Amino acid sequence: MIRVTFRTRQGQLTGFRITGHAGAGTAGEDIVCAAVSSAAYMTANTLTDVLCLPTDITVKDGLMDVTVTGDITAAQALLSGFRLHLTALQEAYPQRVHPINTEV
């Protein structure tokens, strides 16, 4: 299962941490993994290369951690859209994707 923890501070999203594997198919053919990975990379790249926000990003096998260290207000629409996407994936694949929210 893919777990996505969305971090908030004072009601504003500050980043997310993705762990695990969907297990919905073989490596390279897992559509759930592809949907999560593609959206996560799009979000991270938009934060750094389009919005030009200082952002800490860690990527390893089975892990992606993204934390906005700059102006979190400028990141809200993008991070909210990513959370909405993951919530829709959870509805379609409840045994594969589990988004949660946590206050930091």
Layout of strands and helices, then pairs:
Elements: E1 2-9, E2 12-19, H1 31-50, E3 55-60, E4 63-68, H2 76-92, E5 97-103
Parallel strand pairs: 1-5
Antiparallel strand pairs: 1-2, 2-4, 3-4
Model description:
The chain is 36% helix and 34% strand. The chain is of the alpha+beta class and 104 residues long. The chain has a single domain, classed as Alpha-Beta Plaits, CATH 3.30.70.1490. The longest helix is centred in the middle third of the chain and has 20 residues, at 31-50.
CATH topology: Alpha-Beta Plaits
Helix-strand pattern: EEHEEHE
Instruction: Give the C-alpha Rg.
Output: 13 Å
The number of domains? 1
Query: What is the residue-averaged pLDDT?
Result: 95
Please tag this protein with its features.
104 residues, alpha+beta, Alpha-Beta Plaits, five-stranded mixed sheet, 5 strands, 36% helix, 34% strand, globular
Quick structural gist:
By secondary structure, this protein is α+β, with helices and mostly antiparallel strands. 36% of the residues lie in helices and 34% in strands. The protein has one domain: Cysteine protease Prp (Alpha-Beta Plaits, 2-Layer Sandwich), CATH 3.30.70.
